[in-house]
Design a protein that fits this description.
Phosphorylase Kinase, domain 1, alpha+beta, 32% strand, 13 strands, 5-stranded antiparallel β-sheet, binds guanosine-5'-monophosphate
């Protein structure tokens, strides 16, 4: 049986046969209909500690796909160009095919996670200014932090591209912080990835509880992947709660 995927012009039986371009820890990228598009699939796999801890959380893929969908639409409406084109089904989105910049951009509003550990700043300490960090996107090397001169020296990005990425990351932070604030959630920190499309830097990858820290404003409860990393339980309940609040926002 073939089922038409809403608005995609494709049928369900066709999608799984598409050429797998890349399989990451929680997402897969398939070839699209042409060389300008790809299909990004959000899987149920969860990993932490660079793959040391693994689990399958049924429904996580669909939750992250829908959360990313809502956030990409919101960012596009507010002038941020992203790779998102449209949803194909619950877990798959059609995206623009970018040349990924192999640099992860981390944005921090409050000390937590790696920042707290590295610099001895207690989790929850508000930061006097937004912190931007760059890391090499490399599981093999454990995503080490890099400075701008290191990035330009080995040609991962030009200084102009870095300036664009920094500017976009700060604008994205302001937009997302305000949106999540309305949802009763503090946006603690998050990771972004960018790619080039027609020579322009655009936002790629995902924005979801897998790549952000979300704290409930009223209770301080963690509503993100730290529930999995730190064995806090009810991971999917937290992801569902983020989606529910975004839908109501
Ligand atoms: P930290 O450096 O504190 O571990 O992470 C900072 C923020 O970036 C957190 O919200 C974390 O989820 C996100 N982050 C950092 N590295 C990665 C990564 O390799 N993959 C994903 N999905 N998120 C990351």
């Amino acid at each position: 049986m073939e089922r038409e995927l809403p608005g995609s012009g494709m049928t369900e039986s066709i999608l799984p046969e598409r050429k797998l371009l890349y399989k990451g820890k929680s997402k897969s990228m398939y070839a699209g209909n042409d060389d300008r598009t790809c299909i990004l699939e959000f899987r149920d796999s969860a990993t932490a500690g660079n793959g040391a801890k693994k689990a399958e959380l049924e429904g996580k893929g669909a939750l992250n796909a829908e959360i990313s969908h809502i956030l990409y639409k919101y960012l596009e409406e507010n002038g941020i160009e992203t790779h998102f084109i449209k949803m194909l089904d619950d877990t798959r989105m059609l995206v623009r095919k970018v040349d990924i910049v192999n640099v992860e951009v981390i944005v921090r509003n409050i000390a937590a996670g790696g920042f707290s550990k590295k610099y001895g700043v207690p989790e929850g300490t508000p930061l006097k200014n937004t912190v931007l960090e760059f890391c090499l996107k490399s599981d093999g090397y454990g995503d080490p932090m890099m400075n701008e001169s290191q990035i330009t020296a080995i040609g991962l990005a030009s200084q102009e591209q870095l300036e664009t990425m920094k500017d976009m990351a700060l604008r994205i932070n302001s937009l997302l912080y305000a949106l999540f604030d309305r949802c009763g959630i503090t946006l603690v920190d998050f990771k972004l990835e960018f790619g080039t499309y027609d020579g322009r830097i655009i936002l790629a990858d995902e924005i979801s509880p897998d790549s952000c820290r979300f704290w409930d404003k009223a209770t301080g409860d963690k509503l993100d992947k730290d529930r999995f990393r730190r064995d806090l339980g009810d991971v999917l309940g937290a992801y569902r709660e983020v989606l529910r609040r975004l839908r109501d926002a």
